[in-house]
Amino acid sequence: MGKKRVRGLSALSKLKSLLTDGDIAFQEIIREKGIFCSFLTYLGVVIATTIVTLIIRLILYSMSDLQILWPDFTNNVLSNTIALLIVPFAATLIIHPLILLLGGRGGIAGTFKVIAYALIPYFIISLIPIVGQLSFVLTLMIAGYGFMRVHNLTQFRAGLAVAIPFLAVYLLMNVVGLWLAINFGLGG
To answer: Fewest 10 Å CB contacts: which of 11, 41, 61, 109?
Structure first.
């Protein structure tokens, strides 16, 4: 029995397929024209999870003795949301040249779509305490699989396309943290 081919999956069906049957999800993602649909889906999840996070934080703060200033709190949430809107574009500009160096054959729109859809489960699962912090592993796995399908990369090369930027950011954060700790006594 071969893989079934599905046309016109809704955004929710596509997200479910990402977690249950990546082949079907990425068949549909590859067929999408441009980045509009993937960006709207990503945007909807970012806004929804931001609202849920805001509600959870407000409930927790109202139950505690912490006094917060509403404008500072909302500015923080709004600035984080704006930053999250930039993430898939910035990641695409960083990762796509690496994919091309690794022999990838898809366009930059394909890279954007993979990154946008791979980040969505992270935002949803990260709402769950403790478990949510590990959801980036699922994001890396979905991105790697997506790069295999969209850019016709081998599993090893798709893994490199995911691992190299992740390790570079991790090392950069540790170097900056160490520099701050040494020079300013921060982080200790």
So the answer is: 61
d(CA 167, CA 171): 6
The answer to whether 108 and 156 are in contact (CB under 8 A) is no
DSSP 3-state of 24: helix
How many angstroms separate the CA atoms of 6 and 139, rounded?
23
Exposure class string for 33-69: b at 16+ Cβ within 10 A, else e: eebebbbebbeebbeebbeebbeeeeeeeeeeeeeee
Q: Looking at the whole model, is its pTM more than 0.90?
A: no
How confident is the model over 12-44, as pLDDT tens digits? 787 788 888 888 888 888 888 899 999 999 998
